[in-house]
Amino acid sequence: MPDQQTESVFSKINQFVLRLNRITTVDKLLFIQELGVMLKAAVPIDRILQSIAQDTKNPHFQMIIQNICSDIQGGASLSDSLAKHQNVFGEVLVSMVRAGEASGNLDQTLGFLYKQIKKDHDIVSKAKGALIYPSFILMTIIGIVSFLMIKVVPQLVSIFAGAKIQLPLATRILQTTSYFMVEHTKLIFLGVIVFIVMFMIIMRTYRGKYIMHTIQLHLPVIGMIVKKVNIARFSRTMSTLLRTDMSIVQDLEITARTLGSLPYKVSINAMAEKVKEGATLEEGVKSVPPVLFSNVVIQLISVGEGSGALDSVLDELASFYEDEVTQVMNNLPALIEPILILVLGSVVGGIAVAIILPIYTILQNTE
């Protein structure tokens, strides 16, 4: 009995450790791609899953694939097996696989899903990647200014202490700021840590996250990127789900859950309610805040509904906004770099001027 209990404890610990291995989008992309290719070759699905599990390097994902394989060998469908791990695969994938099984075109559906998820992954990766460089430059600016104010400025300003001159206003401001930073370094450091912790706590709340996401939408450059990314993901996901046999209300509800921006989530859920009451998708889009969807999006949705080709129109719309995001991401470093260099130059130049002015005054008095 103790051996069984020990084995059970070790089994739970092992499962917990496995779950620490995060399943990435790349892991899921490889899974979908291999599954689709082997299904085209008419390989039995349980053998496909066994082969994929052996090739999978992520132990957590390997365990999930093995569980799916066991369910299928027990008589379950692929969609039902995937649904047990919906937190990993997502509602869109499960719904599309179910539709593919029903139509008998599962391999084609998986190919379409692979393209859709890859495009979505690419657009989010580019958005994150483009912000890394500006963030690094900003942190560098903060580091350089802090070093100058704490280590360099006090030594230079002390030279003027013995000189009987009226220090310029810029030098007095620099001296006071430097003195405060030197005397209260620990307090400032603690304040920064408290601010970061409080920010993280607030961002874990629904209200705090909603406010922050709303602010993002109104920021000059970031707002444009957030809108383009969310419209692209909305269009791509809706285009994918409209190819299934689900109702448009279900499509909207699932799409809302795939988006990262809370204002978009709330608005799309509101659109689903309006459509449920009998409104068209165009009327639903028009009812949400105008900052979320442009007139072009509304007009194209209207055309798609009128022509009965809404899925194709949304697919084209998604491609357009994905290209727009790619272009913005490629140009963003070139746009932001001069601004950041100008800020750094202005700050360092301001410090230099504040130090040089009293030196110039002393030289004049000695002549």
Structural features:
single chain; 367 residues; mainly alpha; Receptor-associated Protein; elongated
Mean pLDDT: 82
Please report the first level of CATH classification, the CATH class of the largest domain.
Mainly Alpha
- Count of discrete domains: 2
Number of strands: 0
- Class by SSE composition: mainly alpha
Major pleated sheet: none
Q: What is the rounded distance between the termini?
A: 97 Å
**Unreliable parts:** none
- Note the run of SSEs as H and E: HHHHHHHHHHHHHHHHH
**CATH topology description of the largest domain:** Receptor-associated Protein
Helix content: over 70%
Tally of separate helices:
17
- The value of Rg in angstroms is 29 Å
Strand content: under 5%
